[in-house]
User: What shape does this take?
Amino acid sequence: MSLDLSTEAEVTWCPGCPNSQILVAFRQAVEGLVNDGKVELHNIVAGSGVGCHGKISDYLDVSTFNSLHGRIVPTLTGIKLANPKLNVVGFSGDGDSFSEGFNHITHAARSNSNITVFLHNNQVFALTTGQATTTSPKGFKGGTMPDGSINEPVNPVLIMLVMGATFVARTPASDIAKTKEIMQAAMMHKGFAFVEIIQPCITFFDTREHFKNAVYWLDAKHRKGNIDYAFKVARMNTDEKVPCGIIYQTEKPTFEELV
Ligand SMILES: Cc1ncc(C[n+]2csc(CCOP(=O)(O)OP(=O)(O)O)c2C)c(N)n1
Ligand SMILES: [Mg+2]
Assistant: This one.
């Protein structure tokens, strides 16, 4: 059965923004899971943070919530704790969860809250017109740092592994079919699922060419629960090659079960 998950809200992302590809992938992911009987539509909650990415909740005809900047993750944890039947997913930005909300995402991973976080990593504060976030590369030039950012970037995949996330993946927004599959796997995972989505900002930090050439897919047979392999993948220099796919998956009791 085809599900129409669109809304009447006008899509105001820049024409060509990969956020639209993430939106399509998620709609397809939900449609597939609902049609396969794996999740009921009324049990899906899709929250978002503040930033361009955050508009996604306006374009999804499911139960949604738009949080304060950096606060989507604890909001989702609260929703899941109040009603564990819900399938709770959040859309966050690199600024949202690795700058303002860094403390929240790390602790949600540590406690293995049974939620899913999709990180729209465009390596920039896009909505506020192009300042450096924690994931911007050293030397990144923006309005507030015309001579280039002086800090080393953080690596979201590595941080999530260190903090104990039980599902960690990376996918490029440009590959809608693969992103959909990974979203479905993340939403079906029991425990904290984190997906870094490479989402070049075509207006303030256009990295499309780099990622088009650098992305490659991991061989799935190595991944299951192999933390040494996952750390090796996470530490790879993404200036050269960008490994994508499910990097790590394991099982642990969830925060909600333990509470
Ligand atoms: C506490 C707080 N600090 C700063 C802001 C201003 N602000 C709004 S959106 C935004 C940028 C968001 O960047 P990111 O999370 O990477 O999302 P993107 O726009 O790149 O999708 C900022 C800094 C705010 N709304 N609240
Ligand atoms: Mg951003």
